[in-house]
Every structure is written in structure tokens, then in C-alpha cells.
Design goal:
Monomer. There is one protein chain. This protein is of the alpha+beta class. 51% of the residues lie in helices and 10% in strands. The protein is built from 22 helices and 10 strands. Helix 2 packs antiparallel against helix 4 and helix 18 packs across helix 21.
Length: 527
């Protein structure tokens, strides 16, 4: 009923038609905005210094810029990419304004004061006021750490580029990477030999077996069952309940395959009329390199973490036992949907878990503990700045989907919000919001990733940190959180797992404490 009502099923005939028309218009505008958000910009070749042109695609008398080139070592390349790629496009600007305006009209038509109020009903946060409280408190708690991170990044820029040391928005991703590499030796080539795909899958199997009594078995697909010959079919089997569902693993790179790692549902689980349960069928899609005759598929630490993340989604789907399939597994509020997947990242970064499977593919040697510790600590380098950036994006999203008409242009709002909630200056004649493609799929819900991470962090620390293989905790996790999909209020599921009602301050503290350095690792590295 709720899903129908936010689209106007309860309205009279004339208003229902208006709601349908608005939804169609919003879909069209969303599609147009997404295309524009990814469209490259071009500039006449002679306007760019000759020595940086080779970093971009040349097309006759023009240079094509199709991204931010955030990892380019040359400051001028990053600056040029930022200013050219983010240069405002009048058509895209109109499209965004129309999209936000039509969303507001739809929300008001179906009885909400703003689009954000409509989007957030049924979520953990419940309303935009709670979201803004969460984001503003998080910003306050991060402020000192963010300033410290900016000082460290500026120090590195001054060291490498003393002539031009002012910190600009195109600098943090590159210089934080430099600092990370300098402090911690985390070259992916050192780690890959320990993370063969077979070893990582065995690690997941061990973890699910200990926590949930579940095993993953490879099955031979029938002829024509899979869309590519290297797709693997896994049966998910419980030690006493038997078959729970199937996961198709589409793991390897191929031409024309989307680059995004993701999980999607082929068939949702549901209770059938005869009392049997329709088993779920899902796909995990990654972009891993193929094995060769001499070399198995080796994963970088980032790929290994992504595999665990996506498998968290898959288990949410496999273990959902809902009456209806439109609320099964990951079909739940956005700020809850990422909790099981982010929780799996905590397992992937725990030495006790990694030690179960990380073996050198040639020697069989276990990965040394200090390698895992260094990897975990390296992720905390300038992490406050990264989190502050996410807070800025989430607040911008809330303002855009808040009270309409907007009191200023979307670019003026961006400038004001960036300077207040990020700290680096707005660059004139740029309009980052026109590249903010998440405004389409996550309208008024961009905060969800931070909220999900906060919940996952609390669950990890309070339930699994002491013993990541505890079976009774695993069973409670299945019973309280994974079984219900979107069929139960999300905060009730979180309370059932934590055995208490968490506050906004609890969520903020969980996120901020994740940034604390581990003293043991610090001392090991100092020796």
C-alpha cells in the first residue's frame, strides 16, 4: 500500500493521471540527465599547454576530456581536467532544474511537503530532519580531523610542488594516494599472490559455514542456461535446511560488459500458494582478470574487498524468507540495503578471517599479519577528508530535494555548501552537480551509504569483533536482519541485532571511531 500511495494510487482519477504524467516526465529527465552527466567536454587544442595535451584524447583541433583524471601526477593535468570536465552545460543545467522541480511537484501531489519527505518514509532515518541532524553532527565531529588531513595533504603538495602549494579540490585524491604509498608499502603486486580467486571463494565458504552453517557448491549449468561460458553457478546449501538458492557468478572481464561490480536479482524468494518457498536466484557481477596457463586469477586487495561486499548482498538475497518477492533480500530501504554488504568488508579486513584463506598461490605461505594490518591502516590515511566529502555530497542532495522553489541556483547552493561542509574553495565556472549522476538513483538518499556504514560498524564492533566466527551471533544476524528483507521496519531489525536502540550520536561515534589508528600497527611499523 505504501509503495502504491507514494505514486498516487489513493488520489482521484484526475490527480492519478497527473501523478502518472509526472512520473513519466521524471523518468525522461532522469535518462537525459544521466547521459549528460557522463558526456565528455571538449576544448580547442591551442587553449591547453602543449606538454599536457597527450594526457587527453585528441580529436582534430580539439581535446576531449571525459573525466577528472584524479590520479594524474601532474597538477596542471588535474586542474585542466577539473575545469574543463566540470564546465557548465546550459542544457544539462535546465534538465537538473526541471528534474528537481518535477520531483517536488510529484511529492506535493501525493501529500508530502518535499520530495525528501516522500523518499525517506520507511527508511532508518525516517525523515529529512533526522538525516540533516546525522550529517551536521558527523560534520562537526569530523572537523578537526578533516583540517588535520588537509594540512597533511597540503604539506605533501608543498613538498612536491613548492611553487603552487594552495590546496584545490583536484588535489586530495592524488596527494592522499602519495601519502598512503609513502607511509605504508601496500603495492598491490605484493598482495595479489595471496588472493587467488579460488582462495578468496574458499574464504567466503569457511566464513559462511562457521557463521551460518552454509556451504557454496559449484553446479554444472544446463546447456543454454548461462549467457557466457565462464559464468559459474553456485548452489547455496544449509547443513540442515538444504538448498537455499542459486548465485550465478559472472566474474570475468569481457568486451561490452558494464564495468560496475554489482548484485542483481533474477528471481526473488517468496512464499507460494502451496506453502512451498520459491528459492531466490541472483547474479554477482565483477570485472576480474582471466586466469592464464601459468597464473590463476589474482585479486588486488580492493577486488577481494569488493567480492566480499557483493557476496554480502547475495547472502541477504539467499537468506530472505519473506511472503512477497518485492520485499525480499536487498529489496528494502536504501539506508539498510548496504548494511550486510558493508559488514562483509569488516570481515574482509580482519586478520583472523583473512588468515583462514590468504595463501601464496605458489608457496602456500600464509599472509603475514603485519601485511593485513598495514593494508587496514592505509585506508585510514586522509579518511576524514574522504568522509567529509561524502557529507558534503549528502547535504547537497538533501538541499536540492528540500523546500522548493530553491532560494538560489543549484550552482550557488553548491558553492555555499562546498565552502561550509567541505572546506576547499569553489572553483568559478564549474558545476560539479551536473556530473552528480547519483542524484538520479539516490535522489534524497545519498546519505544512505554513510548511514549503512554507521550501522554496519556498530554491528561489527558490538556483535562480531570479539569472535568473527561465532555461530550463535551469526544465527541472530540471520534471524534479526537478513530474513526480513524490506518486510520489517529497518530500525526494528537494527535494534533486534544490537539488542538496544541506537541514537544518531551512536551512529556518528561509530563512523568517527573507525578513523582511529590502531596502536599495535603503529608500534609494529615504528620498530
Amino acid at each position: 500500500m505504501f509503495d502504491f500511495e507514494i505514486s498516487g494510487i489513493h488520489l482521484d482519477k484526475e490527480k492519478r493521471k497527473r501523478a502518472v504524467d509526472l512520473n513519466v516526465k521524471i523518468l525522461d529527465l532522469s535518462s537525459t540527465f544521466l547521459m549528460g552527466a557522463n558526456f565528455p567536454n571538449k576544448i580547442e587544442k591551442h587553449l591547453l599547454p602543449e606538454h599536457i595535451r597527450q594526457n587527453f584524447v585528441l580529436a582534430g583541433d580539439h581535446v576531449i576530456v571525459d573525466g577528472l583524471h584524479a590520479e594524474a601526477p601532474d597538477d596542471l593535468v588535474r586542474e585542466a581536467a577539473y575545469k574543463i570536465f566540470l564546465y557548465p552545460n546550459a542544457g544539462q543545467l535546465r534538465c537538473l532544474e526541471e528534474l528537481l522541480s518535477n520531483r517536488d511537484l510529484l511529492a506535493k501531489l501525493v501529500g508530502y511537503s518535499t520530495y525528501s519527505h516522500r523518499a525517506l518514509q520507511g527508511t532508518i532515518a525516517k525523515n529529512p530532519e533526522t538525516v540533516m541532524e546525522f550529517l551536521e553532527k558527523l560534520s562537526d565531529k569530523l572537523s578537526e580531523r578533516t583540517l588535520k588531513d588537509f594540512e597533511i595533504i597540503q604539506g605533501m603538495k608543498m613538498k612536491l610542488n613548492p611553487q603552487n602549494s594552495e590546496l584545490m579540490p583536484w588535489d586530495p585524491p592524488y596527494y592522499s594516494g602519495v601519502i598512503r604509498a609513502e607511509r605504508y608499502n601496500i603495492e598491490p603486486s605484493l598482495y595479489c599472490p595471496f588472493f587467488s580467486l579460488g582462495a578468496c571463494m574458499e574464504g567466503l565458504n569457511i566464513l559462511f559455514n562457521k557463521l551460518l552453517g552454509i556451504s557454496l557448491y559449484a553446479e554444472q549449468p544446463a546447456k543454454g542456461e548461462v549467457w557466457c561460458e565462464d559464468v559459474r553457478k553456485l548452489a547455496v546449501v544449509h547443513e540442515s535446511e538444504g538448498l537455499l538458492g542459486y548465485i550465478y557468478c559472472d566474474f570475468f572481464q569481457r568486451a561490452d560488459k558494464p564495468h560496475q561490480d554489482c548484485h542483481f536479482t533474477i528471481r526473488g524468494g517468496r512464499l507460494k500458494e502451496d506453502g512451498d518457498y520459491q528459492l531466490p536466484v541472483v547474479v554477482l557481477m565483477l570485472n576480474l582478470p582471466h586466469s592464464s596457463r601459468n597464473l590463476p586469477t589474482l585479486l588486488t586487495p580492493g577486488m577481494m574487498e569488493n567480492l566480499f561486499h557483493e557476496m554480502g548482498h547475495a547472502m541477504h538475497s539467499m537468506l530472505g524468507r519473506t511472503r512477497y518477492q518485492h520485499v525480499t533480500g536487498t529489496r528494502c530501504p536504501t539506508d539498510f540495503a548496504e548494511v550486510p554488504s558493508i559488514l562483509m568488508e569488516y570481515f574482509a579486513n580482519d586478520y583472523r578471517v583473512v588468515n583462514q584463506f590468504a595463501r601464496h598461490y605458489q608457496t602456500g605461505q600464509s599472509m603475514p599479519k603485519n601485511m593485513v594490518s598495514r593494508l587496514c591502516e592505509s585506508k585510514k590515511v586522509c579518511a576524514a577528508v574522504d568522509m567529509q566529502l561524502q557529507v558534503f555530497y549528502a547535504i547537497l542532495d538533501q538541499i536540492y530535494h528540500g523546500k522548493h522553489p530553491l532560494r538560489r541556483s543549484t550552482t550557488d547552493i553548491l558553492k555555499e555548501t562546498q565552502e561550509k561542509f567541505y572546506g576547499l574553495p569553489y572553483v568559478p565556472n564549474t558545476a560539479w552537480q551536473l556530473r552528480f549522476s547519483h542524484l538520479v538513483g539516490y535522489g534524497a538518499k545519498y546519505y544512505s551509504y554513510l548511514m549503512s556504514r554507521a550501522v554496519a560498524s556498530m554491528i561489527w564492533k558490538e556483535c562480531f569483533l570479539q569472535d568473527p566466527f561465532n555461530r550463535s551471533t551469526g544465527e541472530r544476524y540471520r534471524r534479526e536482519m537478513l530474513a526480513h528483507g524490506g518486510g520489517r521496519e529497518p530500525m526494528l531489525m537494527v535494534q533486534g541485532m544490537l539488542q538496544k536502540c541506537p541514537s544518531i550520536d551512536d551512529f556518528v561515534s561509530a563512523l568517527v571511531s573507525d578513523l582511529d589508528l590502531d596502536l599495535e600497527t603503529f608500534l609494529m611499523d615504528s620498530e
